[in-house]
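A quick aside before the break. I want you to see a complete sequence-to-structure record at least once, exactly as it would be stored in a machine-readable document. Don't worry about memorizing anything.
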Amino acid sequence: QVQLVESGGGLVQAGGSLRLSCAASGRTFSSYAIGWFRQAPGKEREFVAARSSVGSANYADSVKGRFSISRDNAKNTVYLDMNSLKPEDTAVYYCAAGNFYRGIYDYWGQGTQVTVSS
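That is the input. The structure line, written in tokens, reads:
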């Protein structure tokens, strides 16, 4: 089993940057894909980015070229670097652990708020 805790959210102006962190506990962390998802008020949760256990990465079209996902298995941590932020990036961001190719994520963190002001 994997427990996930997100951090790094906050308030930033449009065009700014933030780094989100997802700290995981559990000895099998390196075998899981880690994904980032977000949910804005009144909207459904949507996929943002994911990185597989062997390094493959996938991004939503809306964040390609602006966001970057990386993982440090030695620290059991996954990062989401967000640049050129837009007001529409405002949401609660969640990290999740699961299967990269099936797109199924079984373990979820509690979320961290990101607010981008115009």
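Two observations worth writing down. The first strand starts at residue 3 and ends at 7. The CA atoms of residues 7 and 41 lie 19 Å apart. We'll return to this after the break.
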